[in-house]
Amino acid sequence: MTASRVSWRPSAGLRFPVPKFILASFEVGRKFKWARAHFFVGCENEAALEFSGPPANKGFRVSMDLDKIREAAERVARSVGVEVVDVEWQVGKQRLLRLYIDRPPLPGQSAGSGISHSDCEAVSEQLNVILDVEDLVPGPAYILEVSSPGLDRKLLKPSDYERFAGRLAKVWLNEPVENTKFFEGRLGGFTDGLVQMSVRDREISFPFAKVRKANLVVEF
User: Fold this and answer.
1) DSSP 3-state assignment of 163?
2) What is the mean pLDDT of the chain?
3) I need a surface site. Which of 78, 97, 111, 200 has the fewest CB within 10 A?
């Protein structure tokens, strides 16, 4: 049995402020026999709607196949016209499956148009059914959360460094390059397996294989 949370944060393609509003509850998932609705007041950069149920059994461990979950999520995303950015599985007080989606840029565009709350809702509803039918998340109750990657989105693929060329980013490396494992600067693209960056008016490059994590920096 699953719970579902749909959240929306402005992605890199969204350029206008989000007005404040209140979200009402709605039914999610054909297997629900109970639901506890939580209402959230939208703020300038986030709106969320959540259903929750009994907490996961403490100490219960199951093996998760995130590759199968990602494949199912990508099928749903394509049908909605968006793409899967990342899939995360977290176990704490609640079991949480978090999916980040975005709208890819059209040919000739450098950035997509961003996603809406309705995009997140559509993906959440369709994916929730597939996860239940194919039993891809075994074990006790969990929460499915679908949201945009946000303005500080992770950079996970080589194409991300091309797509966001010119944007300010932070990059952490597994091995030092020029005696440092951390760089903050503007992305210059991706060529022959190397990430290009402009750091303090000098150009540097390092292998994508050495990147431990990276994300965009929010600029105003």
Assistant:
1) helix
2) 77
3) 200
